[in-house]
Automatic annotation (TrEMBL):
PROSITE patterns: HIS_KIN, PAC, PAS, RESPONSE_REGULATORY. This is histidine kinase. Residues 227-277 form the PAC domain. Residues 153-224 form the PAS domain.
Length: 501
């Protein structure tokens, strides 16, 4: 017996004009746990089904006024009832047209007198099919919605890609072949779409640029992305543009690809350089005269200052000196970049340069309680001695600034194959891994307060890099954060005589 509180297996509507049949079916199904509604007329059956659609309809074929075929027809024509499975009921002696029943939309038929198992089996089959169909329809709808959402997202991406003012390119990781580029990329590069698609970055750009690009791709493969890496791009007309390159690894048609978003900063850099050099030129004269006035004050020729006055004067002198250093460094760098300063190479003994650098920095090292160790050998090099000395003193000065008292700094030379390598090693605070490259850029410091606290300008390493690269060498740093750093620089040994090894 079905308990009152149990949920019915399904809601069945029985339409039959014979009350005995209705009673029989109703009892049979209710006992098995179905909820049964019964009506004796086709028209009231249709109305009932429209008002509260049942899960299945058992429909008598032979009824006065409206026969079963017609009822089924009308049910199938109505949006609210068209999906309800209809099983026809026919009597053994009746003329039953099966084809007509299926054409009207019926799914099956049962014959009176009923056999309980048969009725239940057919009912179950069609209820299950009906449920599966409903599920399928729901999933179809969901799929269609997802497809529509994806299409909308793709369209949005395609629009953003097409109209983005930043040049964007997609290329395969393995071969570096361009798959797609946007209009801004074509404008920036000067190439047409046909000239770009299917070709690689190496084919259309400088070898050196593609070396940096390959490094960026390797980094992106490790970290998933790279942001704002400076990059020199050679356009079709031969102009070199300065680009900030951001790369993300994506998958396209099962292949690993790069999504490169570029920012052309050529003009910004030009204006920045122009502005800095203009301001520096304008600042130099008044600052030199300020320094002269401060010197005059401290000489005592204009009267004696109180102790407090001398302290204030010393602060003013220190800061003016720092400003003059900054302006001089900016102008030095600008002249080097524009080629206004040329190197004056002569043959000189590297060990003498190293000794000179140590002597220059000895007072600063003594003040900081830091020991300078020199390990060099006599190697004749063809360099601008003043500029190499400038580089070495800058590296030593940094090493002293960022070392604790009682620590050591080593200044070494090594001769390797066709170049010599100079090392400046300290036991100081070290440099974090993500800053090892950037500190060679203009005004880049590990800590924003370094230049103020340690009296630097943030330009020293940029100048060193220019000097070394002008000599055809390289400069880089390796460091264990918290345990010290080693700055390396190489100078080519071509046409040099090794005096002693
Ligand atoms: P600055 O005039 O600030 O020293 P540099 O270009 O010479 O400018 O150096 C840039 C920054 O690199 C420094 O401000 C500091 O943060 C970091 N740096 C340079 N050398 C060292 C070192 N030996 N140890 C730790 N940090 C260093």
């Amino acid at each position: 017996m079905l308990k009152q509180s149990a949920r019915p297996l399904a809601d069945i509507l029985v339409i039959d004009d014979t009350p005995e049949n209705l009673a029989l079916l109703s009892q049979m199904l209710t006992e098995k746990g179905y909820k049964v509604r019964s009506v004796t007329k086709g028209s009231s059956g249709i109305r009932g089904a429209q008002a509260v659609p049942p899960d299945l309809i058992l429909l008598d074929v032979k009824m006065p006024q409206m026969d079963g075929y017609e009822v089924c027809h009308q049910l199938k024509a109505d949006q609210r009832t068209k999906d309800i499975p209809v099983i026809f009921i026919s009597a053994l002696g009746d003329v039953f047209d099966k084809i007509k029943a299926f054409q009207a939309g019926g799914v099956d038929y049962i014959t009176k007198p009923f056999q309980v198992e048969e009725v239940l089996a057919r009912l179950n089959t069609h209820l299950t099919i009906g449920k599966l169909q409903q599920q399928l329809q729901k999933q179809n709808l969901q799929l269609q919605q997802e497809i529509a959402q994806r299409a909308a997202a793709e369209e949005t991406f395609a629009k953003a890609f097409r109209s983005c003012p930043n040049p964007i390119a997609m290329a395969t990781v393995a071969e570096g072949f361009f798959l797609e580029v946007n209009t801004s990329f074509l404008q920036m590069s000067g190439y047409s779409r046909e000239e770009i698609i299917g070709r690689s970055i190496t084919e259309i750009n400088l070898e050196s640029a593609s070396a940096i690009y390959n490094q960026v791709v390797q980094k992106s493969l490790q970290n998933g992305f790279v942001r704002n890496q400076e990059f020199q791009f050679l356009t079709k007309s031969g102009t070199v543009k300065t680009i900030l390159l951001s790369v993300e690894i994506i998958e396209l048609a099962g292949k690993q690809c790069t999504l490169s978003i570029m920012n052309d900063i050529t003009e910004r850099k030009r204006l920045e350089n122009e502005f800095i050099s203009l301001v520096s030129h304008e600042l130099r004269t008044p600052m030199t005269s300020m320094m002269g006035a401060l010197d005059l004050l401290s000489s005592g020729k204009l009267g004696t200052l109180t102790e407090q006055g001398q302290q204030v004067l010393s602060i003013a002198t220190n800061n003016t000196e720092r400003l003059i250093r900054l302006v001089n460094d900016i102008l030095d760098l600008e002249r080097m970049k524009s080629g206004k300063i040329t190197m004056q190479p002569t043959y000189c003994d590297l060990s003498l340069l190293l000794t000179q650098a140590r002597e220059t920095m000895q007072t600063m090292a003594d003040r900081a309680d830091v020991q300078l160790e020199l390990e060099s050998c006599s190697v004749e090099v063809f360099v601008d001695p003043d500029r190499i000395l400038q580089t070495l003193t800058n590296l030593l000065s940094n090493a002293i600034k960022f070392s604790d008292a009682n620590s050591k700094i080593w200044l070494r030379t090594k001769v390797l194959n066709n170049f010599c390598q100079i090392e400046v090693q300290d036991q100081g605070r070290g440099i974090p891994a993500d800053k090892l490259q950037t500190i060679f850029e203009r005004f880049q410091q590990v800590d924003a307060s370094d230049s103020r606290k340690k009296g630097g300008t943030g330009l020293g390493l940029t100048i060193c890099r220019h000097i070394i690269e002008h000599h055809g060498g390289k400069i880089w740093v390796e460091s264990n954060f918290g345990q010290g750093s080693t700055f390396y620089l190489t100078l080519p040994l071509s046409e040099q005589k090794i005096l002693c090894l």
